[in-house]
Design a protein that fits this description.
- The chain is α+β, with helices and mostly antiparallel strands.
- It has a single domain, classed as Metallo-beta-lactamase, Chain A (4-Layer Sandwich).
- The strands form 4 sheets. A 7-stranded mixed sheet has the order 12-13-14-15-16-17-18.
- The protein starts with a strand and ends with a strand.
Length: 255
Amino acid sequence: MEIFALGEGSYSVDATKKFIPFNPELDNPKDRPASLFIHVNPFLIKTDHDLIVLDTGLGFKDTRDELLIHQNIRNAGFDPEDVSLVLMSHLHYDHSGGLVVERNGKLKPSFPRAQHVIQRQEWETGLAGRTSSYHKEIFEALKNANITFVEGNGEVQPGIRYEHSGGHCPYHQVFWIETEGKKVFFGGDELPEPEQLIRKFIAKYDMDGRKAMMLREEYGKKAAEEGWTCLFYHSKSFAIGNVQRTDEHFKVISA
């Protein structure tokens, strides 16, 4: 198994829910009041059987009109056309924007040959488009793609399982991938960065902040006990890490 963080950089987000690129070396956070600063890291996993994408980033393009996630996959040594499995933790825009790409004024699936795994009720929520966290046009363009709708907990295929977690948003899910003697956990926005394991807090951006905090504790403990490698989608430091636990405290080191 090979794991790659497909980093898309840093962004500021204010009440308008617009993601504006932010370069910590050049930009001053004081110039963007009342903003949340986040980092975006989709992931790519190569196994003996699949080329897997876990969440798809913002769908932004580079100066050559190429999707950032496509170019980052190429930079890792693979062809985006060969992606066979897309695992979605949830469908908020910063995780689902890269599901589609604009070509000649129309949105088309970014990974047309891939099986997409999405919680059914999360899809229905996104397609309803009742809040700005979801961009309905993405899901309209994806309707004819290969989508496997799942509910609750289960197994995508041997070695890949999902669990409906529902802390960050009602139909959020997390994934475990175990193959070739390696174990990987992807917690989406319920374990988005290693710092959230080190210091306990209730995040205002979670639907159920207390539940999300408890889930982080549960996932961190299990990762430490069972030797899981964790993928941190919004990490400020390193996106791939291993968890250690001493007494009641966690330590996360770069993998």
